[in-house]
Amino acid sequence: MESKTKLTSDSSEWHWWLLVAVIAVLVVGAASITIWRDFHELRHKVPRIRRPPGGVMQKYSDALHVSTQFFDVQKSGKLENNRIKWRGDSGLEDGKDDNLDLSKGLYDAGDHMKFGFPMAFTATVLAWSILEYGQHMEAVNELKHAQESLKWITDYLINAHPSDNVLYIQVGDPDIDHKCWERPETSTEKRPTIQVNSSYPGSDVACETAAAMAAASLVFKNQDSGYSKLLLDHAQKLFEFANSYPGVYSKSIPSIQDYYKSSGFVDELLWAASWLYHATGDGYYIDYVTVMHGNAFANWGNPTWFSWDNKLPGIQVIFLVSDPEFIFFFWGGGVGGGGLGKPSF
Q1: pLDDT value at residue 91
Q2: How far is Cα 327 from Cα 336, in angstroms, rounded to an integer?
Q3: Kind and range of the H or E run holding 158
Q4: Alpha carbons 212 and 202: distance in angstroms, whole number
Q5: How far is CA 345 from the centre of its chain?
Q6: What number is the average pLDDT over the span 178-187?
Q7: Integer Cα distance of 67 and 110 in angstroms
Q8: Sequence-distant (≥ 6) Cβ neighbours of residue 199 within 8 angstroms
Q9: % helix, strand, coil for the chain, step of 5
Q10: Which of helix, strand or coil describes residue 170?
């Protein structure tokens, strides 16, 4: 009797563990299928979130309209379609001492300086915004305005790159300029120029300019193919210049260290290569980022905020947007990620 009871108990216990095992297998299987399905859908969909333009709230529309006026307020040169009544033509002689037309572009902050490093970063981020949210801008009649503002900067950047290994990065003397309280339309101060070149390299500012041009080439690709190709040609040549003659521009030219001093140039090299990959689809650029400089790319860095001086977070976002599978690159610790899909822009 005791043996029979024990046998029955063992049998019940065995059935219990079998039931637990079956349930566990089903749960794991269901979870695996769900994860695979969701990841597969994410992998093959355009990863950017796109909501119907019809849902744009009026207050956000008004905020966007006011925000884009900032570019109009900061413009230099002979103004076109001027939306700001109290602004007029200015900086028309910029660059003439070097036989260049550097009249366009944007003034920096509240002064009359043209600093190439932050101006190019502004163009890159504006281009990125148009690529990501252009349909929403169009829904509130701001897309054309944003494109015009972008072209105003890139026209300047093209003229600031007169030869392969020369890039003009500054117009004006900040020490003189910051002592004057006047309108740019009436300014009479001398406005000297500063350039980086093979003798005084500036990989950081050259690559930020390359990134701006590569990103902008995508914006204008379907509207003006000739202009888009011109931008891309300048971007590729600037990248080669920066890569061949490495250096921090604020170290090459110590006199400019008080204004937008750069902390390094590796992030800008990767930033430019990232945008060139998206603009060309050329595998060389993705290898440059993820293989040749993979450890620098995978390092989240400190600080980790995105700014004119630190592009690393932006680089990582660009590639994760291109292909969500690339998150495994970070989990894997760096070199050897690869496997990115085609550019998504």
Answers
A1: 94
A2: 12
A3: helix 143-159
A4: 16
A5: 12
A6: 88
A7: 16
A8: none
A9: 60, 5, 35
A10: strand
pLDDT in tens, 211-253: 999 999 999 999 999 999 999 999 999 999 999 999 999 999 9
Nearest to 89 by CA among 103, 102, 110, 99: 103
Q: Which two tokens stand for residue 152?
A: 């105003």
User: What is the rounded CA–CA span in Å between residue 200 and residue 198?
Assistant: 6
Dihedral of alpha carbons 45, 267, 221, 91, sign: positive
Sign of CA dihedral 288, 162, 87, 183: positive
Amino acid, res. 113: M
Residue-wise pLDDT for 80-128, tens only, equals 989 899 999 999 999 999 999 999 999 998 889 999 999 999 999 999 9
* HEC per residue, the chain: CHHHHHHHHHHHHHHHHHHHHHHHHHHHHHHHHHHHHHHHHHHHCCCCCCCCHHHCCHHHHHHHHHHHHHHHHHECECCCCCCCCCCCCECCCCCHHHCCCCCCCECCCCCCCEEHHHHHHHHHHHHHHHHHHHHHHHHCCCHHHHHHHHHHHHHHHHHCCCECCEEEEEECCHHHHCCCCCCHHHCCCCCCEEEEECCCCCHHHHHHHHHHHHHHHHHCCCCCHHHHHHHHHHHHHHHHHHHHCCCCHHHHCHHHCCCCCCCCCHHHHHHHHHHHHHHHCCHHHHHHHHHHCHHHHHCCCCCCCCECCECHHHHHHHHHHHCHHHHHHHHHCCCCCCCCCCCCC
Task: Give the tens place of pLDDT for each residue, 243-287.
Answer: 999 999 999 999 888 899 998 999 999 999 999 999 999 989 988
Q: Is the pLDDT reported for residue 8 higher than 50?
A: no
Domains of the chain are 57-332 (1.50.10.10)
Q: Report the DSSP beta bridge partners of residue 330.
A: none
For 126-181, the pLDDT digits (tens) are 999 999 999 989 988 999 999 999 999 999 999 999 999 999 999 999 988 888 88
Greater confidence (99 vs 332) lies with 99
> To 5 degrees, how large is the angle CA 250–CA 73–CA 192?
40
